[in-house]
């Protein structure tokens, strides 16, 4: 879910909000609150889990582990049939919180690549600040969705290592980052035209 301040930002004009690759909601301060979380659980999490389970021949049940943030409803409110949420113990360090075990880092890394590529591909006559000001919530939503799609199964599985040590992991080969692929884009930008491989 992506939360913004505006119900329908200008950049979404003439766009079907249901066609977005994420669930977009608005809140006055663009914060998660109990009502939004409850709505996400009922309208997004449960239907998506049911569709996944049916598609894969699994029973209609699931357990969502969440931290006990003030923005989350009571776990008793997050139950629909055999699909429910339970809280991790309070004040648990990131050692056992699955999303803190590299998943968020991978997501952020993928997102930053999208942002950097966008800044480098944008009109070379604009300053970085001008380019940043042109970015809309729509751009961010599509970058986040693509960054999530590029987060590997291996990263997700490894995030459970501390809570579920017996889980079998998919071994994956992570391709090395190729800085040279961005070099032509970097050279196009003002102040970077004299960049050479290995000397930037």
From TrEMBL:
Pfam annotation, one family: DDE_1
Any one cellular component term from GO for this entry? nucleus
Task: State the superkingdom.
Answer: Eukaryota
Checking InterPro entries in the record gives: CenT-Element_Derived (IPR050863), DDE_SF_endonuclease_dom (IPR004875), RNaseH_sf (IPR036397)
Q: Which residues form a coiled coil?
A: none
An example molecular function term from Gene Ontology annotations: DNA binding
Domain DDE-1 positions:
1-160
Q: Which PANTHER family match?
A: JERKY PROTEIN HOMOLOG-LIKE, TRANSPOSON
Q: What is this protein called?
A: DDE-1 domain-containing protein
Q: Which organism is it from?
A: Homalodisca liturata
The opening ranks of the lineage are: Eukaryota, Metazoa, Ecdysozoa, Arthropoda, Hexapoda
